Amino acid sequence: MNKLYIAKKVLSGMTCSALALGIVTAYVSAPTGSQDVSAKTIAEIQEQRKQNSEKIAALETEISGLEGDKANEKAYQDTLTEQIGLIQENINLLNAELEGINEDITSTEANIKQLDQDIDNQQVEIDENIELFKKRLCAMYISSSENPASVILGSDSFYDIMSRVQVINKVAEYDEELITSILDEIDNLESSKKDLESERLSLQMKLEDQEKRKEEKTAEVETLNGKIALTQAEIDRISKAQEDLERDKADIEADQAALDAEEQAIQAEIARKAAEAQRLYEEQQRRLAEERAAQAAAAAAAQAAATQQQESSGDSSGSTETYVAPAPTEPITYDATPSASGFSWPVPGHSGITSYFGARWGTYHRGIDISDGGIMGAAVCAAKAGTVVTVSNSCTHNYAKSSSCGCGGGYGNYVVISHDGTYSTLYGHLSSAAVSVGDYVSQGQVIGYAGTTGWSTGAHLHFEVRAGGSQVDPMGYVSP
Which residues of the chain have pLDDT under 50? Predict the structure, then answer.
């Protein structure tokens, strides 16, 4: 009977070993490589995604800033364009005024020319009248008939004398009026000519002043056009910089999408492995249950046979050696009181928290660090029932250090447990792990012991909770 039991135990052990080996082999042969690659790769992907998100935010800020600069340059350009329009309008008004002045100058010059011609004509007439007057004086002198003595002596009567004197006076008065009129007309013509000359000079000076103002306005327009050209060049530069930044942003977003796809593929592979491990575990449990039932039946039959033999021998005082199957070794499990979320505290008896979830030392801490004076070697328990999907248990650097020893992607010895395919938990910097990939662990079951492996400055447990593959604040799920 003992030989039968031993044979069954050996067979049972071989079966369990084969199942465990199958689970490990299936996990190792997965596309993600070694057991710690998946967790490490996900951590790296999430860190890269965080860096990409920060880069995208920075690029968007820079693009917005450039858009503001471009808007300012465009507003400045619009102001310059409006100013050019006003100056051009003034130039058009100046051109119209210049045309009027030119017309006035042309008209004045024509008037001056006409006056010159009138003066010349009048001068000819005056010269002719003066010559005529000279001839008349000369004739009067030669004839002497027009002197007063000859008038008196040659007269026949007093009436004749008076008539001749009156005629002489009339002729003298006419000559005097003629000469005075000619002289006055010459004076008027000369005065008009001076006025026209003065007017022409004034118009000429005004024309020169307007021409100068026109040149100044034209130069001002050219200066503003130069500023517009510079502004347009700056707008073009800003637009080019924006296009470059948009391309960089698109490249990063494409990289982000690739990282998302890669992480989803890894999470799907982890879920697949967890489901396969759960299936194998359930198959193993079923077979163990069958074997235990068979062992119990065999033990009961052996006990019954021994009792029957004792009764048949009639030796009531004798003793018969009866084999009692030893109780199977059970894992160590602590009483765990789950929180409202269904998770329990992972280090019974140790509640100190030295670092929380969030920004830390210029980086982002994606879990909580549980530590106190006596935590080294303390039991670390599963925060919730689930299947072990990752175990890294090869780090021997269980001492405080200021940099990473390179083990376990910085986690050192660590365990990852999948809970129903939605949540998973990570237990890092263990001195050693007490479970294997594919093990189904209950809540509160010991899965390892606290230590300071990996990148750790002292004994503590780094504890993470992941929802859908992304780290979330564990304090929302557990409490001391």
Answer: 1-40, 144-145, 315-329
* Residue ranges of the chain that CATH labels 1.10.287.2610: 1-314+325-329
Domain with CATH 2.70.70.10 in the chain: 331-480
DSSP string over 367-426: SEEE--TT-TT-EEE-SS-EEEEEEE------S--SS--SGGGGT-EEEEEEETTTEEEE
Residue 345 to residue 138: CA distance in whole angstroms: 153
DSSP per-residue codes, 71-93: HHHHHHHHHHHHHHHHHHHHHHH
Question: 469: which residues sit within 8 A by CB, 6+ positions away?
Answer: 42, 263, 264, 266, 267, 424
- The answer to whether the CB of 322 falls within 8 A of the CB of 346 is no
Q: Render pLDDT for 353-408 as a digit per residue (tens, 0 to 9).
A: 999 998 877 788 899 999 988 899 999 999 999 999 999 999 999 999 888 888 98
The Cα 6–Cα 390 span in angstroms is: 34
d(CA 115, CA 189): 7
- How many helices (H) and strands (E) are present in the chain, helices listed first? 4, 12
The pLDDT value recorded for residue 459 is 95
Spatial distance between the Cα atoms of 119 and 469, rounded to a whole number of angstroms: 113
Asked if residues 372 and 354 have their Cβ atoms less than 8 Å apart, the reply is no
Q: What does the pLDDT read at residue 203?
A: 84
Q: 3-class SS at 472?
A: strand
* Terminal C-alpha separation, the chain: 52
Domain 331-480 sits in CATH 2.70.70.10:
yes
Burial 183-220 (b: 16+ CB within 10 A, else e): eeeeeebeeebeebeebbeebeeebeebeeebeebeee
Q: Express the helix, strand and coil content of the chain in percent, nearest 5 each.
A: 65, 15, 25
Please count the other Cβ atoms lying within 10 Å of the Cβ belonging to residue 51: 12
Rounded Cα distance between 20 and 8, Å, is 18
At residue 329, the pLDDT reads 46
1-314+325-329: what fold?
Helix Hairpins (1.10.287)
Residue type at 173 in one-letter notation: E
Token representation of residue 383: 């925060």
The neighbour count for residue 263, using CB atoms within 10 Å, is 19
The pLDDT assigned to 297 comes to: 79
pLDDT at residue 368 in the model: 96
